[in-house]
């Protein structure tokens, strides 16, 4: 299995631009998680889906952030408009019916 | 409610000496507990997992952890540190029906 796939691996954009991060979970996994990691705040859960349905989005910072999961094999996290304080590493993770989450390699986002 | 506390933000050891990374948890029920490792500029990788079977759990790369309910601890150990063990380690508590709760991480430095 290829594991969780994220794209792009690195993204540099200017303040005010729209940013879209993509995630392909492990085939057969029915839960998907988006995390953000910064030096100041550590690892934060933004949102998670079960069977493509958003279950808990209480970690989404504000309305500029949105996430979708149109099918079992694809999810996006969108930031519009982006701000410098959104600079972070964004991780996607997926899980089957066990407890174990498997993480992707992350997307390093820099907003100038 | 669940929580996890990693007692040391930084641990420094010499190569070939034992490693001890400490973790205490709080949970209203019997939890699942995990240790993840993150090497620089990489995603999180599962080291080991406890799910109410054997209290001593063996993981990858020679690491193991012991679940002690009376002490609400799940410390991570390795008999002999290797330079490649230098990374950040996260203690995590959770159940498949809930989101995972991550500790703030312990950065392990291995000196030659």
If helices are DSSP runs of H or I spanning 4 or more residues, what is the number of helices of chain B? 0
- From the helix content, strand content and strand pairing of chain B, which structural class follows? mainly beta
What is the number of strand segments of chain A? 11
Query: Which sequence of SSEs, written as H and E, runs from N to C of chain B?
Result: EEEEEEEEEEEE
Characterize the largest beta sheet of chain A: strand count, sense, and whether it forms a barrel.
7 strands, mixed
Basic shape of chain A: globular
Give the ordered list of helices and strands of chain A.
Answer: EEEEEEEEEEE
Number of beta-strand segments of chain B = 12
**Largest interface: pair, residues per side:** A-B, 21 and 20 residues
Ranges of chain A where pLDDT stays below 50 over 5 or more residues in a row are: none
Cα distance, first to last residue of chain B? 41 Å
By secondary-structure content and strand pairing, the structural class of chain A works out as: mainly beta
Q: Give the amount of beta strand of chain A, in percent.
A: over 45%
Uncertain segments of chain B: none
Task: Name the helicity range of chain A.
Answer: under 10%
- Kindly report how far apart the N and C termini of chain A lie: 36 Å
Short description:
Chain A has 112 residues and is an all-beta fold. Chain A is built from no helices and 11 strands.
Folded structure, characterized:
The complex is a heterodimer of chains A (112) and B (112). By secondary structure, chain A is mainly β. Chain A is built from no helices and 11 strands. The mean pLDDT of chain A is 93. By secondary structure, chain B is mostly beta strands. Chain B is built from no helices and 12 strands. In chain B, 34% of the residues are buried. The mean pLDDT of chain B is 91. The chains are: A mainly beta (112), B mainly beta (112). The interface between A and B is medium-sized, with 21 and 20 residues.
